[in-house]
Amino acid sequence: MRQPSSILKSLGLVVLLGVIATPAADAAHASGKRANQENLDARITRIEHGLLPAAIIRGQPTPTMTLADRMKYYHVPGMSIAVFEHGQIAWARGYGLADVAANKALTPETLLQAASVSKSVTALAALRLVQQGKLNLDEDVNRKLISWKVPDNQFTKNQKVTLRRLLSHTAGLTVGGFAGYVTGEPLPTTAQVLNGQKPANNEAVRVDREPGKQFLYSGGGYVAVQQLMMDVTGESFPELVHDLVFKPLGMSHSTFEQPLPKSLWPDAARPYNADGEPVPGGWHVDPEMAPAGLWTTPSDLARFAIEIEKAYAGQSKLISSALTHQMLAYQSEQIYGLGVALGERGHAVRFWHSGANSGYKCLFEGYPEIGQGLVIMTNGDSGLRLIGEIQRAVAQGI
Questions:
Q1: 3-state class of 113 per DSSP?
Q2: Which of 69, 195, 267, 288 is deepest in the core (most CB within 10 A)?
Q3: How do beta strands 284-285 and 181-182 pair?
């Protein structure tokens, strides 16, 4: 991908300056707004008709592809996009279908599963508890855990599991991801997930290497964060993230409630496999909320990413610049911070995360030094390949 400075130019995002409220000025302002909107619409259209492959042969015409054709090619029924810059959502659009059988359109307000992007939102909520003094990034989490404890073993004799290590996947905990549960199946408690006890369908989450030594992606570690946050607040996980993140950021189309309340089913996109067929049993239920249970929209995730960019610049009322800079700092040999993946060292600061639940694929990315980014969510198992083509189209200034 090209350096992110091209994103602003490629999308034609314009900041409108205030003018004196006179009839002539109002007319000029209205004309300018129309021109700017037409300019933006034209650039969006060029992106929609200019997706790019991963490789281009030098000297050969650059092949371009339409979004509609590529959605059909990858058997992705629907997708939703939000682009933001300088603290504002510049545009948001939905494409295709949320429900193929019902011929129901996917709109910018359609709920989709964020999968592992849940970890990034969880991290912000956890860091808010750090800022409030309820948690400590570098304290042994067993000091605050009540309902479950990290089992001590030979690996925890000298180094302990801390919140920093849990958020950065360096705590040495097992269980990379979770399969979820078919709607109607018995659901385990958080402690049962951590202990691998029925009806949990995963192995026990345990430390199998010395904490702090190396990166090991662990959804299980984020379930430990989930339990930790509930223990120190006395609230359910959906309630506390709502209070810490969703409500103050205006993320009104987001929830960690699992199962998804039936009142929200009409707003949710159905999941489809790589062949474009419905996922058997519909969407999966994820009691492992912190690592995988978020339902949201690209616009709401854009609000989340915008707040991170504001906090990075010291302009957030939710979280300090110092904590945000720790969040966006490399925590190991891998390109991972606290709850977010990071861009390559030596390049413009980029924070991002992808997500992959059954029938849902998504990605968000932000560039705090220039205040830009985008969010793309799909309801098809081949969605990440399509997302890559959209990223390349945006980066090339189509």
A1: strand
A2: 288
A3: antiparallel
Position 64 in a domain:
no
Domain range for 207 is 75-381
The residues pairing with 367 across neighbouring beta strands, listed in sequence order, are 372
How many folded domains does the chain comprise? Answer: 1
Tell me what percent of the residues of the chain surpass a pLDDT of 90: 82
Q: Tell me whether residue 289 is in a domain.
A: yes
Query: Has residue 123 been placed in a domain?
Result: yes
Per-residue b or e along 239-252, where b marks 16 or more CB atoms closer than 10 Å to that residue's CB: ebbbebbbeebebe
Distance of CA 165 to the CA centre of its chain: 20
Residue 5 lies in a domain: no
CATH number of domain containing 157:
3.40.710.10
Q: Please give the average per-residue pLDDT across 37-45, as a whole number.
A: 79
Residue 394, SS3 per DSSP:
helix
The answer to whether the beta carbons of residues 360 and 115 sit under 8 Å apart is yes
- Quick one: the chain helix, strand, coil %, rounded to 5? 35, 15, 45
Of 348, 311, 345, give the one whose Cα is nearest residue 327: 311
Exposure of 268 in the CB half-sphere (CA atoms within 13 A)? 23
The pTM assigned to this predicted structure is 0.89
Q: Are 352 and 346 in contact (CB under 8 A)?
A: no
